[in-house]
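Quick one:
INPUT:
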């Protein structure tokens, strides 16, 4: 085992030296310092395991030295050495992070015993941390399936940022798992006990944005009958997930940028800034750099968000993961009888498809097939028509009398939505308006049918 390095800090050199000699005889590597300043300098320049620190010293007393050392070297174990009269100070020191205190005069044996206990305690804490780390690595992100090199890369990026406060931008096409990754980062990170707030940036009407996110004071505007705490304040200490951040209207981007820069908000109707402490994770299915060039996305906001970028692969770029995903989904949608089995040709069909809707599309297909197979094992006939044209193409005959009403209705709806998107050149708001439904509702339909509005623009 490595030799324990002890630093004895006492303004009476004789005392320090006596302790040094005693401890060196017992096998410790011992240095001395005769002032607080010197002690701090030693800690800054060489490794120290345990510091034996006299409480009463001038000009810096032991408590002050303790405070400074703990700030810059929290790993150093500090044992206070104190006379009877200073026990109060020693107790205070423990509150400030000292490991223990020993009364003067103390024998080398006594000191050694204390040092040994302190080191054992530290080793146990380190071991605990390591065990926890291993445990977490095992369970970590276990809801995210993928063994392909592309997914390994995603996992290693996640490992790098999960314990940090870094802002993360998750980039990926629809259904590739952006929200899943955002959640895993939150729930495996240091803020997991606090809230995760998901804001769908496109779904929030511009006029409500400020009061939703920043809150408002009573009487700030007509209808503000009472004070309202906004999301940023409510989630203080937690994680803020800006989903589909690429859809944020420019006017709102400016307001978001301010929060990210200043880390403070002002409630509507107030002038007092309030500090907020949130970790930011953003997701987008757009190429934000291209949006910046087109003038649709603020460059300054882009750089604030894109501190660390995690890119999720398309499912067709990681087809080797399909069997794993299928197994996972069969378990997820299992009935009381357990997970369904799947025939070889059904698996082949899944492997052959090009999955424009990525994992979400696969998940929908499996969920539906499990229901249709009624516990008899999944056959390719239970899968949606995999040869179906891509959403931008011809969706096929309108009426197939062999299908159940729900499917026929779905097919009609799909065609209808595609028709509207064609006419509006992929403008979701305009299409929703023509359909007479809310934007979010229309968006849900796009998701359901794995339609990408951009294919029509
Ligand atoms: N690697 C994965 N392993 C297991 N399930 C996954 C994986 N990726 C995605 N999923 C599942 O697919 C579905 C879609 O994932 P998610 O909502 O995270 O995608 P998204 O990228 O946010 O999509 P969108 O851009 O459409 O919002 C979810 O049910 C999720 O659990
Ligand atoms: Mg999403």
């Amino acid at each position: 085992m490595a030799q324990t390095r002890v630093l004895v800090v006492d303004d009476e050199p004789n005392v320090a030296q006596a302790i040094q000699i005693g401890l060196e005889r017992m096998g410790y590597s011992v240095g001395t310092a005769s002032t607080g300043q010197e002690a701090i300098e030693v800690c800054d320049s060489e490794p120290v395991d345990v510091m034996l620190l006299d409480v009463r010293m001038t000009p810096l007393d032991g408590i002050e030295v303790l405070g400074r050392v703990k700030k810059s070297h929290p790993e150093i174990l500090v044992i206070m050495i104190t006379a009877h009269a200073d026990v109060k100070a020693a107790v205070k020191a423990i509150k400030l992070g000292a490991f223990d205190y020993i009364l003067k005069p103390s024998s080398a044996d006594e000191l050694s015993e204390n040092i040994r206990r302190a080191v054992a305690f530290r080793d146990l804490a380190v071991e605990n941390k390591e065990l926890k780390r291993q445990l977490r690595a095992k369970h970590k992100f276990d809801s995210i399936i993928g063994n392909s090199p592309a997914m390994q890369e995603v996992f290693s990026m996640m490992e790098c940022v999960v314990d940090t406060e870094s802002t993360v931008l998750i980039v990926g096409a629809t259904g590739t798992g952006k929200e899943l990754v955002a959640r895993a980062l939150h729930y495996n990170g240091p803020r997991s006990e606090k809230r995760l707030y998901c804001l769908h940036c496109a779904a929030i009407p511009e006029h409500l944005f400020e009061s939703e996110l920043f809150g408002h004071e009573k009487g700030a505007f007509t209808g503000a009958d009472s004070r309202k705490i906004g999301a940023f304040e409510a989630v203080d200490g937690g994680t803020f997930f800006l989903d589909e951040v690429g859809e944020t209207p420019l006017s709102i981007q400016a307001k978001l940028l301010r929060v990210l820069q200043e880390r403070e908000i002002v409630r509507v109707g107030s002038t007092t800034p309030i500090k907020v402490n949130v970790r930011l994770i953003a997701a987008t299915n757009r190429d934000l750099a291209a949006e910046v060039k087109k003038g649709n996305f603020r460059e300054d906001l882009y750089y604030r968000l894109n501190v660390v970028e995690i890119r999720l692969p398309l499912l067709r770029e990681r087809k080797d993961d399909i069997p794993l995903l299928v197994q996972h989904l069969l378990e997820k949608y299992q009935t009381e009888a357990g997970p369904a089995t799947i025939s070889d040709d059904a698996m082949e069909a899944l492997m052959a498809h090009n999955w424009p809707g990525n994992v979400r599309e696969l998940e929908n297909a499996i969920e539906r097939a499990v229901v249709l197979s009624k516990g008899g094992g999944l056959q390719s006939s239970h899968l949606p028509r995999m040869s179906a044209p891509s959403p931008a193409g011809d969706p096929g005959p309108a009426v197939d009398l062999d299908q159940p009403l729900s499917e026929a209705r779905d097919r009609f709806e799909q065609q209808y939505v595609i028709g509207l998107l064609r006419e509006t050149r992929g403008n979701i708001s305009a299409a929703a308006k023509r359909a007479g439904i809310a934007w979010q509702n229309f968006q849900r339909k796009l998701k359901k049918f794995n339609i990408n509005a951009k294919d029509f623009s």
